[in-house]
Amino acid sequence: MGSSWIDAIDFGDMVEDEICDHCIGGYDPRERGRVQGHCRECSAAIRQGRPYNLSIPRMNAILRAQDDACPICGELAGDYGMEGRSFWQIDHDHACCNRNGSCGRCVRGMLCQPCNLRVAWYERLPRDIRDWPRMNNYLDDPPAKRPEAGVSTVGDLRGIRARDGSFAGWRSSELL
Prior knowledge:
With about 180 residues, the protein is of the alpha+beta class. It is about 25% helix and about 10% strand.
């Protein structure tokens, strides 16, 4: 019997995709820059939340509580690409944790980069001249401190809301 064309193909370098532990998407296990068991996108989100003691489901819940918009300026997500840095910056009260990162309890919300820079400047102003209502509302009632920012929906558990946005077809508001 002659050999078939399939026998002529060298499959030696092929590696079957593995399934990400978080988003259930496939990834190449040989890919560098990943947290073990996770795709590149989930790995980036894990690394972003780690210094603030935030998991992906908790970041998803905070963004859900903020209606997937910056709570100060109202800007919607528009990240720098699926493989780039997230559009959102994690804001925390620097008076609580005077170090790079946080304990997690002092996280206030997820802001766009310009507002994250503004909040640091604004907090240094004397209280009697802080006259920006939206910023004052954010500081007085941070989204991450609200009860609705707890992990409570199926959609909080899967995907990366910071990168996929609120319009992803897999998003579920079904309660856990």
